[in-house]
């Protein structure tokens, strides 16, 4: 009986100590969207570089392991060159909806981390002067998210977070057979931002 009571007391003490730590955080970041040139199926696609915003929510399951949800937003242009279309342009709204597993380490005020997950990139054509094919349709492409970075703790509630993030996804074709590369691309989104722990 004494052993059971001692074990319960130890478990409650550990739970109370861990419960006092911040297990959740919300972050807001700015990122650069850098897409590669993609060539396939006699189509050449070039993604223009732009900036965007990223909102994330992270929940720590243990001090080293956590889960993260992300929403990102940016606007850029996809340019296509084919044998029939020398100057195809789609002004695009990019949205990211992803979930990832995050592994954390702690070295004084520095907290390096790595993440991997899945999600969707939503490519929505904007029908304006930057788009010269009005038949373009929205693409929702499923892919893999991966990245690594470091958070620097500036107080118990705030840290500055810098990260290299990337998304492996099929190149968008906007429902147009003339723009179909049948290739995958790695879209890089390096980011820097601030996280609030609660």
Automatic annotation (TrEMBL):
Classification via InterPro entries: Beta-barrel_OMP, OMP/PagP_B-barrel
Species whose genome carries this gene: Granulicella arctica
Key words, A-Z: Signal
Residues making up the signal peptide according to the UniProt record: 1-19
Presence of keyword Phosphoprotein: no
Annotated protein name in UniProt: Opacity protein-like surface antigen
A Pfam family annotated for this UniProt entry: OMP_b-brl
Domain Outer membrane protein beta-barrel residues, every copy: 6-198
Source superkingdom: Bacteria
ATP-binding as UniProt keyword: no
């Amino acid at each position: 009986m004494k052993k059971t009571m001692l074990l319960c007391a130890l478990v409650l003490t550990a739970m109370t100590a861990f419960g006092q730590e911040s297990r959740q955080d919300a972050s807001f970041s700015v990122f650069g969207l850098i897409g590669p040139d993609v060539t396939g199926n006699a189509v050449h696609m070039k993604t223009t570089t732009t900036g965007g915003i990223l909102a994330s929510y992270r929940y720590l399951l243990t001090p080293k392991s956590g889960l993260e949800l992300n929403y990102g937003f940016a606007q850029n242009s996809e340019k296509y060159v084919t044998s029939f279309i020398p100057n195809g342009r789609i002004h695009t709204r990019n949205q990211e909806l992803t979930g990832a597993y995050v592994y954390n380490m702690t070295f004084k005020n520095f907290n390096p981390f790595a993440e991997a997950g899945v999600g969707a990139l939503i490519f929505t054509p904007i029908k304006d002067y930057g788009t010269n094919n009005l038949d373009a349709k929205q693409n929702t492409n499923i892919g893999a998210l991966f990245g690594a970075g470091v958070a620097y703790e500036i107080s118990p509630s705030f840290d500055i977070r810098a990260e290299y993030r990337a998304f492996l996804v099929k190149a968008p074709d906007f429902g147009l057979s003339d723009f179909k590369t049948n290739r995958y691309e790695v879209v890089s989104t390096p980011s820097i931002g601030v996280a609030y722990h609660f």
